[in-house]
Design goal:
Layout lengths: L7 H25 L9 H20 L8 H6 L13
């Protein structure tokens, strides 16, 4: 089965909508100052990458803990323990 092609009017509507969204994002970035280039000092860059790599390491290590499910990491309560029975 072939896919239906949108009509010319539908394509034009999509292009206009897409351009409007892109223009809005550009305006918002300009207003917030996110479109400007900026230089940061080495200490700030190093701190940023430490945070990014630490978060990545924690996310990749979660499945490696035996006997722990991902849900226990979200709730903070180990599997098999009800919230009211937790010692903390």
């Amino acid at each position: 089965m072939g896919q239906m092609q949108p009509s010319g009017a539908a394509q034009a509507k999509f292009v206009i909508c897409n351009q409007t969204i892109e223009y809005g994002f550009k305006q918002a970035k300009d207003d917030l100052g996110w479109a400007d280039y900026r230089l940061t000092d080495a200490a700030s860059s190093e701190r940023w990458w430490e945070l990014v790599m630490s978060a990545y390491t924690l996310v990749t290590l979660i499945p490696q803990f035996p006997g722990r499910s991902n849900s226990s990491f979200r709730t903070g309560v180990p599997r098999g323990v009800r919230r009211g029975d937790a010692p903390w």
